[in-house]
């Protein structure tokens, strides 16, 4: 056979090996996500599901009851979004490392607070000692729409440095609320 035919086969083999490697990585990520829950949590979920399906077979909860619950949850969500001003548009989570006592996850979160868009990316390290679980945020990266304001830029830099998400959300809520008031005021005078 000609060397070019061998080369074509070799390239095809390499492409297939790369595809297998990528699919294996995807499979491992999905498997890690599914093993995120302990055996006890899985058993509790199964028991809860079985109780729920038994209730359905007994007729305890009708479809109209479930629809009413869903509408109630939708109303609650709408209230909290109106109350806080936060609307999350996307969230993704990937488990980077999982051991018996330690889990590292990478999170990506985007949304709006009033009219200000934001994106967060961070790693969450959860450690379990006996009955206690502690969580530490690291590698926090924040992207905001209104970076031209130097005070916001300083605040974002400080928050990224300290990795304090609670402070970020509280401060962003207050800032976005006043930002909206200023914007409406300036629109009124234009």
* Estimated radius of gyration: 24 Å
What is the spatial order of strands in the main beta sheet? 1-2-3-4
Number of continuous helical runs: 5
Strand-residue proportion: 25-35%
Q: What structural category arises from helix and sheet content? A: alpha+beta
Q: Note the main sheet.
A: 4 strands, antiparallel
Let me know the average pLDDT. Answer: 80
Distance between the termini: 79 Å
The global form is extended
Could you give the topology of this structure?
Blueprint: H1 3-34, H2 39-58, H3 63-84, E1 86-98, E2 102-113, E3 116-129, E4 132-144, H4 150-162, H5 165-189
Antiparallel strand pairs: 1-2, 2-3, 3-4
GO biological process, one term: CENP-A containing chromatin assembly
InterPro entries: CENP-P
Organism: Lanius ludovicianus
Q: Could you explain the architecture of this structure?
A:
It contains five helices and four strands, in the order αααββββαα. It is extended. A four-stranded antiparallel β-sheet has the order 1-2-3-4. The protein is an alpha+beta fold and 190 residues long. It has a domain at 85-188.
Q: Descriptors for this entry?
A:
59% helix; 4-stranded antiparallel β-sheet; CENPP protein; coiled coil; alpha+beta; CENP-P; 190 residues
